[in-house]
Amino acid sequence: MSNEAIEKEHELKPFSTAQLLNFCLGFFGLQFAWQMRIILSGPVTEGLGASPLLFGLIWLAGPVTGMLVQPIIGELSDKTHTIFGKRRPYLFMGALFASLALWAFPNSAVIADKIAQFMHIPTPMFGGLIIAAVMIWVIDACVNAAQGPYRALVPDLVPPKQHSLANAYLSFAIGLGSVVAAGTAPFLKYVCGYQMSINAQFVMAALAFSLAMLWTCITIQEHRSVKTTANTDTQNQTDVEKGPSFISKVVDFFKSSPEVGKICLLQLFTWIGIMSLNIFFTQYATHTIYGIPDLTSASEEFKNSYTDLINKSTNFSSICFAVQNLICFLVSIPIGLLSTKFGNKRVHFISLITLALALVGMGVSKEPGFVLICMGVAGIGWASVLALPFAMLSEFIKKGSEGSVMGIFNIFIAGPQILVCTILAWAINQCSFMIPEGINYHWEYAFFIGAITILLAAVITNLIKEKE
């Protein structure tokens, strides 16, 4: 088959609403797993002895694996030629190994004991915490291995005019996945009277991730690559197989337009704010709203005395994330439609302002009802963050470098998280104070820092010049 015939065969056809909904189902499962990791990793690791600083350092798994894994996997997926496609092998294997780690994570203490028994050695003091940290690294690496190639499917398969809408549907799936993940345990508790264990919630997340991604791999058909079909020109085959180097793609990425640098800077400041909320909210709910003292060095008897209150605080945190993502779910497609009409940057600027105001509100007021409202307002900005920067960037992506570009772009999502996991976690660790029951920390400071960086991102958004 000639190259001209292949190009005609691969001409991107508009997606119907049903196709867009099907396209985003795998992202539903991915976000289901990621949301469970966000909400419950704090209680699990604190129960194993993690201080605020150590908790932040464990969270480094996300940004570090994001910076390393997504560019590498993105580059590999651009050059992968299999009977299963370019992206699908990474989607499936990422979901499979992440699901195994999701099951193991809440059982870290048991696994550490079993390893010690097998090796005939005493269980190390922090053995469970070490296993938990390893499992978080595996989860985050595998989620990133699936996420980058999944994002690359948008420019691969969707016509340019629908990029904003397709990314909005991914935002829709993220919102829905987060709502179901965060809302299931509180729903069962308050409606059915059943308290779902942390272990059971992680098993639920593992099943959701693996089954949803398997469905996507079965139903999404990737185009055949030139390498596998155009066998009339051996030299052309070699060019496609080798392609430009990763370094040249990085250079081309930043040289393509001065707006690319602005979009990357926008992401950098945005994700400092986003992760200030995601990483520390459950600890804020537990220790600031519900007044539970730090339990990292407490005796088992003292910890057990707070079991019911901890369940209430984690349920409240889950409800807040469910409300945030319910709003994200509801507004994601309208945001995509509004951005098509009024432009990405105008809609994104307004959304970021609402997000910054919500963070300030949470930091100022510790009344549960008001915090819940603020989390709902934050869902508007969250929906925009998940869609419009990617839509703005897609205008500058060269054909054949989609996976690499998404991997490079992810550095400006993952990199800021390192600052949050280290500097901000260290700052909170220094801001301790005493309450009658013991020591506590000013977790709300994270929201004030996040609001400042989100406002900086809004200013940068207003400076971006979109293509007509």
> Could you describe the largest sheet, including whether it forms a barrel?
2 strands, antiparallel
Architecture (CATH level 2) name: Up-down Bundle
Number of strands: 2
Kindly report how far apart the N and C termini lie: 36 Å
Looking at the structure, the CATH topology is Growth Hormone, Chain: A
Helix fraction, binned, reads over 70%
- Please give the domain count: 1
Give Rg in angstroms: 22 Å
Q: Strand sequence of the main sheet, in spatial order?
A: 1-2
Protein structure class: mainly alpha
Task: Name the CATH superfamily assignment.
Answer: MFS general substrate transporter like domains
Task: Summarize this structure as a short list of keywords or feature phrases.
468 residues; mainly alpha; Growth Hormone, Chain: A; two-stranded antiparallel sheet; 78% helix; 2% strand
